[in-house]
């Protein structure tokens, strides 16, 4: 039966080429727009290299300290200190790892000074390499024992630019005139991953004298995000109670999606994504209404066929199934074109497409799109779901309206 439906659909596609062409174009544009929006947010929120732990991550990027005296209130805001993160690690049971990160711009050059550039060097702790899963092509991560040594990890991009080779672990380069030994080389991360992009990571002489305020952003992995946040708040409250009464402290603890979407802490996921959901629905259902109108007009020309089938005993369910299978064949063809169009647009325009809805755009690395961002089970499932939604939304209503007419009216509709 399915083979018969498909053969009939193929015959009708060849006989009605104008309708087929318009339907394919409408479907392709709708799918391309919807998929582009989905890919943008998958890149922002999904597990992509090397930020595979996004779904189990808590972020602390902003803290504030205020001191009130008889004259005024002095306020200082920055990141969090390494000492306070040590306190969190020792007292919060649900914290797995804490990656600390701060960046500063430094001169980078080869030892013979033949090549030189400026880079935003990421100063990180040893657990950074366990929170973010870089692919090492040579060497190894910076270990805890190397925190007080002049060692660095670089990307394959910087390795090729400076040494014309990616296997350069053991060689050295200068940072601001001081030699640093390369202990590892990692595959370059895309600029679409704002936390982990860059070309060079250094072992930091970390813990400054401050007890709370510091220069570091903390990225915390946990298997229970809500409980982890509750424990962090508990540690924070106990800490502030030991401080002088004229000091007040605030600390923003965000889930990764709140940080990525730049949301208020009180924002729910639906509130954060709701406006984008409306855009997605517009991309899908406005074209679906146009396609539905085309199918409705086509169904009028097939009323005599429907009448004959009903006269020979075909049920409404069989006729609906036939029309949906015919429409599905067109929709699948349109979807293939739409996905191809989407990938062409996203890949060729990655520098500006992926910057949509992004408040954290910077130029540390090119915003390149790789296969992991485009070809993964989540994206494939989304494509299939969009195809079936568009198929049913555009074909079901016109078919049901046509079936409301009785056999005689269907057979004589042209007279």
Gross morphology: elongated
Overall strand count: 12
Uncertain runs are none
**Helix-residue proportion:** 40-55%
Walkthrough of the structure:
This protein has 415 residues and is α+β, with helices and mostly antiparallel strands. It folds into 2 domains: 2-48 and 268-411, no CATH class; 70-245, no CATH class. The chain is built from 14 helices and 12 strands. It has helices at residues 2-15, 17-45, 82-91, 128-131, 156-163, 225-241, 256-260, 269-300, 303-311, 316-348, 350-353, 371-374, 377-403, 407-411, and strands spanning 57-68, 73-80, 97-110, 116-124, 136-139, 151-155, 172-175, 178-186, 200-203, 213-214, 217-221, 247-255. It has a 6-stranded mixed barrel. α2 (17-45) packs across α10 (316-348). The longest helix is centred in the last third of the chain and has 33 residues, at 316-348. It is elongated, with a radius of gyration of 29 Å. The two termini are 32 Å apart. The model has no long low-confidence stretch (mean pLDDT 82).
Descriptive labels:
alpha+beta, 14 helices
What's this entry about, in short?
The chain is 48% helix and 20% strand.
How are the SSEs ordered, and which strands pair?
Blueprint: H1 2-15, H2 17-45, E1 57-68, E2 73-80, H3 82-91, E3 97-110, E4 116-124, H4 128-131, E5 136-139, E6 151-155, H5 156-163, E7 172-175, E8 178-186, E9 200-203, E10 213-214, E11 217-221, H6 225-241, E12 247-255, H7 256-260, H8 269-300, H9 303-311, H10 316-348, H11 350-353, H12 371-374, H13 377-403, H14 407-411
Parallel strand pairs: 4-9, 6-8
Antiparallel strand pairs: 1-2, 1-11, 1-12, 2-10, 3-4, 3-7, 3-11, 5-8, 6-9, 7-8
Helix pairs in contact: 1-10, 2-8, 2-10, 2-13, 8-13, 10-13
